[in-house]
Amino acid sequence: MTDHELIPGVALNALGASERLMIGGLRLIAAGRGRCPNLTRALESHLGSQGAIAARGATLLAHSLCSESQRKLTLGWLCVRGVTWDEVAVLAMLEAAQRAQSKEIARWLTRLGIDAPSRVLQRGIAWSAAAFEVAGKPFDPDIASLTRARTTPSGHLRDQIETQMQRYTATPVFRPMMRGE
Q1: How many CA within 13 A on the CB side of residue 58?
Q2: Do 64 and 118 touch, CB atoms closer than 8 A?
Q3: Which residues contact residue 114 at a Cβ distance below 8 angstroms, ignoring those fewer than 6 apart?
Q4: Where are the beta strands (DSSP E) in 23-169?
Q5: In angstroms, rounded to a whole number, what is the distance separating the alpha carbons of residues 155 and 100?
Q6: Would the pTM count as exceeding 0.70?
Q7: Range of 26-35, 95-104, 150-159 with top mean pLDDT
């Protein structure tokens, strides 16, 4: 992970408890620590009886996002205090799911490199979003505005990189033949 993958000026501790817990859970799962009982305990402590559902949803979500995305997603390391663009996109997608805004969910999925989510990914989104909503700890509707926090030129760099990645995956790469091929 490099500096341009973090949203300038946005720290993890500035987010709400639900957002911090979800990002922390996704980071743990992506690091291979998803079966850690402390994650389930933390979710149960925050969400009560909905904690186990949130843990299952987060696990499905993390694995499905990584396997279905057409690009490499960026999650922060456990010790990183910043927030990545992809982490905010996941939170914004979950917040849109809590409002049942299918167009917004599709928009965020597209930004994450997913055109058509599988049933497993849909279930992960639904379980994760519903668990926080039912427990009365919904995600902040203003989370999506963090993606527009472009206070430095590095924000434009992110757009350039994503545009180039889309361009390169859309067109075949020309490679001259070498002798002996």
Answers
A1: 31
A2: yes
A3: 65, 68, 69, 70, 121
A4: 82-84
A5: 29
A6: yes
A7: 95-104
